[in-house]
Amino acid sequence: MENTTTHILIADDHQMVIDGIKSMLSHNKEYQVVAEANNGQAAFDLIASNPERIKLLLTDISMPLLSGTELCKMVKAQFPHIQVLVLSMYNNVTAVKEAVMAEADGYILKNSGKEELLNALYRITNDGTFFSQDIVPIIYSQYQKQKIQDEELNMLSPREKEVLSLIVKELTSEEIAEKLFISKKTVDNHRQNLFVKCNCKSTVGLVKYAIKHGID
Amino acid sequence: MENTTTHILIADDHQMVIDGIKSMLSHNKEYQVVAEANNGQAAFDLIASNPERIKLLLTDISMPLLSGTELCKMVKAQFPHIQVLVLSMYNNVTAVKEAVMAEADGYILKNSGKEELLNALYRITNDGTFFSQDIVPIIYSQYQKQKIQDEELNMLSPREKEVLSLIVKELTSEEIAEKLFISKKTVDNHRQNLFVKCNCKSTVGLVKYAIKHGID
DNA sequence: ACTAAAATAGGTATATATACCTATTAGAAT
DNA sequence: ATTCTAATAGGTATATATACCTATTTTAGT
């Protein structure tokens, strides 16, 4: 298995990208580009016509007729032996998330160099998966966003946070009042104040706010 | 800047870990371990006594007196010039998330080899950040969990999903009825059925269910 | 000592949601 | 043909939430 050549199908609507990758792999015996397609549907048809020929699918995300993530889903569902490496120009969380949920085995950015590509191919064929180092800062920024949101939480008073937490636990105002040994009226006042502070108009909005800020 | 030695403080409650790292870096001119501490508080005191001496803090997460993440927060708040690389034995999402939220510049696992450590140090001092490749599969598994939850969503009928989506958008039953050209009564029936299917007893529960499954 | 904010609680309406019913129709599946 | 589910809608109560008020006490900050 180890020393067998990995047969690759490249799917990308930009022929130059395909040619570039082919060129990069041309001096490498381990990887051989045996097929190419300029849209997702063509790529799927090529695979379906002879599934055993392809060992790895190297695909772009945005392509005509069938997107790379959709292609990935279909391939993984019907031909699970084929590994999929998504090659994207999008460095946002959503794109990465979609790729992972489509069961892609790896994700690298188009501005990666030759080394990164070879590294990705090596890691995928040996370790099973590879995700570009470049996507980590993206997740990093997500978490930092959450940190800022947490600071926004300080607008709420301790008691308000307490009440909000119980609201999210599906307690009614009356039940919350009993639990906190205060009047139902007081709870309702907190609720009103929370509407203003959380900038929403109903309990539904409060729940969304609470979850967004990690109260549960 | 490039050819200056990076002065490192190691904080870890296991002396063997400290000695191991010192040994690994001993033959490397770029990195010099100039201080060490066995708990977070001691590490912070060492930094505070002479902040300019330290360029990089290499810290464990779980330590007595002051945890690595808390230490990181304090250092980043008061001595932002110091870069922080978190060295953890926990490979779970929460640990990584906490480290990032503490503004750590990097995160690697304790079972990483010498190469990974050197790579991390190089990337941090040059690129600013480094996060171990090992943490990606963790995030990967998080996303896959979400995918399974999405399949659970198929228990809901298309119309129910539609109604649920509008509920989460803070519309009342009456407003939803108008929007879908149906009776308010019908909307309320969908709501009741959603309670059963989502296993909750109020709209609050529905909102939590919806958000958990990506409806918004 | 003064001020501001937080937490408390009450009154009075109205709006909305929830808990039970029953019942019809359309479409899909067996 | 028949069975099942989804989607529709109505009746009748009750429970809960929401929108305005006012007002007191406590606590923290200047």
Description of the molecule:
Two copies of one chain form a homodimer. The first copy, chain A, has ten helices and six strands. Chain A has 216 residues and is α/β, with parallel strands linked by helices. Chain A folds into two domains: 6-139, 3-Layer(aba) Sandwich (Rossmann fold); 156-212, Winged helix-like DNA-binding domain superfamily/Winged helix DNA-binding domain (Arc Repressor Mutant, subunit A, Orthogonal Bundle), CATH 1.10.10. A six-stranded parallel beta sheet of chain A has the order 2-1-3-4-5-6, sandwiched between helices. In chain A, helix 7 packs across helix 10 (203-212). The longest helix of chain A has 17 residues, at 136-152. The first copy, chain A, starts with 5 loop residues before the first strand and ends with a helix. The model of chain A has no long low-confidence stretch (mean pLDDT 86). At the A-B interface, helix 4, strand 6, helix 6 and helix 10 of A face helix 4, strand 6, helix 6 and helix 10 of B. The first copy, chain A, binds a DNA duplex (30 and 30 nucleotides) through helix 7 and helix 9.
